[in-house]
Amino acid sequence: MSGEKIGDELTDNAYKDDGYRFHDVFHSAYVAILGWSPVIRKLLKRKRKSKPLVDEVEDGGRAGVIDEAISAIVFITPANTLSLRV
Q1: Which residues does 60 contact at the CB level (< 8 Å), separation at least 6?
Q2: Which of 13, 45, 55, 78 has the most CB atoms in a 10 Å sphere around its CB?
Q3: Predicted confidence band at 6 (pLDDT cuts at 50, 70, 90)?
């Protein structure tokens, strides 16, 4: 963002390259479409600390885990769908 690198270098964390290292695009899409992603807020250091309840509920650990889980499901669904049709 603005020439500054955010986040860490990612790998696929798998024996076979599957492109999962690019899954952060889903988090960016959540921001573009929904206006919200706890993962992106954390990476950009834009968590809403001035509102403790919002920080806990919308930007906290549970929200981040759900954000990552949705990204994983969205990522893997096309691969599973294609393999079922083969």
Answers
A1: 38
A2: 55
A3: confident
Q: Which pLDDT value is given to residue 86?
A: 45
Distance CA 76, CA 74 (A): 6
Q: What are the pLDDT digits (tens) for 34-80?
A: 998 999 999 888 899 999 999 999 999 999 999 999 999 888 887 66
C-alpha to C-alpha distance for 46 and 71, rounded to whole angstroms: 20
What does pTM read for this prediction?
A: 0.76
Tokens of 70: 């949705």
Q: How many residues make up the chain in this entry? A: 86
SS (H, E, C) the chain: CCCCCCCCCCCCCCCCCCCHHHCHHHHHHHHHHHCCCHHHHHHCCCCCCCCHHHHHHHCCHHHHHHHHHHHHHHHHHHHHHHHHHC
